[in-house]
Amino acid sequence: MPQTIQSIEALLVDLPTIRAHQLAMTTMSHQTLVIVRLRCSDGIEGLGEACSIGGLAYGEQSPEGVKLAIDRYIAPLLIGQDAGNINAAMALVAKQVQGQSYAKSAIETALFDALGRRLKQPLHALLGGAVRRSLPVLWTLASGDSGRDIEEAQGLIEARRHRVFKLKIGRGEPQANIAHVARIKKALGDDILVTVDVNQAWDEATATRAIAQLEAAGVGLVEQPVPRRQKAAMARLAARFDVPIMADESIDGPEDALEIAQSAAADVLALKISKSGGLMATLRAAAVGDAAGLGLYGGTLLEGSVGSIAAAHVFATLPQLRWGTELFGPLLLKEDVVLERPDFRDFELHLSDKPGLGLQLDEDRLDFYRRKD
Ligand code: MUC
Ligand code: MG
Residue 125: which of 137, 112, 136 has the closest Cα? Predict the structure, then answer.
């Protein structure tokens, strides 16, 4: 008798960040997670998560919209379905629900977590097995102040937490951005890889001038310099500069990966489970990038522990992950809703072999931080 899906609950959880996180389009002081609890007929519960950055500032999907899509459209489709056949469940959802990649990712994660718990296997084993048990994780310097960013980076290097740093730029004058980046790169030295994320803020002419200077300052990777749909501009920048150009907002799932590969619109793809629409779609996007010879990077929407660990299990299975990951979301949050927080040490995130995601909710904290209205 297959186990069926009995209930699906989507909770909005507002968690404070450890400091303000300043991006080109918004400054975050908290993160809103959508935590999915999917219960099966045998009593097993699977967890999933989705979030966005600054409400609708980063992309077209908001946490509130994710909850609505799940409550109103996805959960009713899935109740009573076989909980163990994830591909069939997600195909059913795909047929009836257009878009909504974040909600789909959270649901698929919860199904995998439940299946892993039932089979007593870690999530990566269900995806064919991990080729690495820990993942390099960078840190984003985004306090808005160069001096504070340098201090923060030096402390994190000293603590062996991070040795690659991504700088959020694209806000204010490009010349001020470049001076900020050059100051930090100089302070951190040759051994430390510094990358920048422009979050679509520049036009092509600005990007052309600025990237030349960023390259001269020693930046190792430039993420999403121009608006996401301007793939021809991305291609011209990728062809013009030696420093690799990474697509983030320009890629959602495998179809975008294919378009980017065909038009040479980036050297590196930022993979994110929510943008892809789930774990399996992330693997498909990765396969396209890999086949095209593009570098792969394990991206984040600044998820909490549930979403970050789900992504980590996927990234652990990829044959190629040339640019490491940025799965530091749980470390940016002052509080968490899981009992045991993920294991970050020696510059890496270490995966556990516990069943599924290997996480347990902290019911008291969840209840405290859950949005009540
Ligand atoms: C983004 O655009 O890459 C990832 C790290 C970070 O600080 O913000 C995110 C989003
Ligand atoms: Mg980005």
Answer: 112
**Average of per-residue pLDDT across 88-99:** 98
Percentage of the residues of the chain whose pLDDT score is greater than 90: 99
**What pLDDT digit, counting tens, does each position of 348-360 carry?**
999 999 999 999 9
Its CATH class, for the domain covering 5-120+361-369, is: alpha beta
List C-alpha distances in Å: 228 to 155, 270, 309: 34, 13, 27
Task: Give the distance, in angstroms, between the CA of residue 294 and the centroid of all CA atoms in the same chain.
Answer: 18
Atom of ligand 1 nearest to the CA of 328: 5
- Please indicate whether residue 303, judged by its CB atom, sits closer than 6 Å to ligand 1: no
Helix (H, G, I), strand (E, B) or coil at 23: coil
**Region 272-296: what's the mean pLDDT?**
98
| Residue extents of the structural domains in the chain | 5-120+361-369, 126-350
| Phi, psi (degrees; rounded to nearest 5) at 137 | -130, 125
Distance CA 56, CA 194 (A): 28
C-alpha to C-alpha distance for 239 and 47, rounded to whole angstroms: 42
Query: What predicted TM-score, i.e. pTM, was given to this entire model?
Result: 0.98
Does the CB atom of residue 300 touch ligand 1 within 6 A?
Answer: yes
Token digits for 55? 């409400």
Q: Tell me which CATH code domain 126-350 carries.
A: 3.20.20.120
Taking residue 35's Cβ as centre, other Cβ atoms within 10 Å add up to 26
Give the distance, in angstroms, between the CA of residue 289 and the centroid of all CA atoms in the same chain: 17
Give the HSE-up count for residue 23: Cα atoms under 13 Å, Cβ half-sphere.
20
- 5-22, strands of its sheet edge to edge: 5-22, 27-40, 45-51
**Chain mean position to CA 255:** 18
Averaged confidence pLDDT in the chain: 98
Catalytic sites, residue numbers: 168, 326
Does residue 53 line the site of ligand 1, with CB under 6 A?
yes
